Every structure is written in structure tokens, then in C-alpha cells.
Amino acid sequence: MHVPEEIRAEAAALIDHHALGLWKPNDADRRAAVALYRFLETGQPLTGEQIRSALAHAETAADADERLLKLLQEAAGLLDEGPAAESPAGRDAVDHVCLLLDALALSRPAGQ
């Protein structure tokens, strides 16, 4: 079971760690976020299939932060569970994941 409250809490923690400079996303993290950000830019809701597609690229999954990968996999599972994803807690969790993706996609590459 993909618990929305846990997904939201983990996304919020990663957002905070990124904002405070405690977590510096690497290039693989940014590539995954940019790929998913492109889906978000279409205005269509994010789907589990889109997340899995972005993570399917070996270069992204192999080097991305383990916490980020786990969070995105959990979010994909939540999105596959229609009613859970549409609940207020589910929508809040997905919104937090999208905020994290926005922050990562728009962040500067490492070393700049």
C-alpha cells in the first residue's frame, strides 16, 4: 500500500533539505525531475506510467538519490491506486511530489 501521508512527508522533507542546502541533487536527480517536469508542463495530471517511464532510463535510475527514487516509485504506485490518489490526502501527496520536481528541475546543476 502506498500511504499518501508518508509520501507527502518524504516529499516535504526532501524539499526542506534541498532548500536548506542539506541535500544537493546530482545530475541524475535533475534529469529525472526535468523529464517529469516536461509531463507536468502539458497541464495533464501526472501518472504512474509517466514516472516509471522517466525512471526506466538506466542513466537516471543508476545514479539518482535513493530517497528520491523510492519516493517517485511510491508516488507512481499511489497514482495507480485511483481512489487513493484522488482522495484529499492523495492529492496533497502528489502535489508535494510535483513541488519537489519543480524545485529540482529548476535548480542549478551541481558545481554552478
Q: Stretches where pLDDT falls below 50 for ≥5 residues?
A: none
Average pLDDT for all residues: 89
- What's the end-to-end separation, in Å? 39 Å
Helix proportion of residues, in percent? over 70%
For the report, how would you describe the main beta sheet?
none
Secondary-structure-derived class:
mainly alpha
Q: Strand-residue fraction? A: under 5%
What is the number of beta strands?
A: 0
Please work out how many helical segments DSSP would assign: 7
Task: Count up the domains.
Answer: 1
Rg over CA atoms: 13 Å
Shape: globular
Element-by-element helix/strand order: HHHHHHH
Question: How do you describe this structure in short?
Answer:
The chain has 112 residues and is mainly α.
Structure characterization notes:
The chain has one domain. It has helices spanning 4-19, 27-41, 48-55, 58-63, 66-80, 82-86, 88-105. The chain is an all-alpha fold and 112 residues long. Helices cover 74% and strands 0% of the residues. α1 runs antiparallel to α5, α2 (27-41) runs antiparallel to α3 and α2 (27-41) crosses α7 (88-105).
Index terms:
74% helix; 112 residues; 7 helices
Architecture blueprint of SSEs:
Blueprint: H1 4-19, H2 27-41, H3 48-55, H4 58-63, H5 66-80, H6 82-86, H7 88-105
Helix pairs in contact: 1-5, 1-7, 2-3, 2-7, 3-5, 5-7
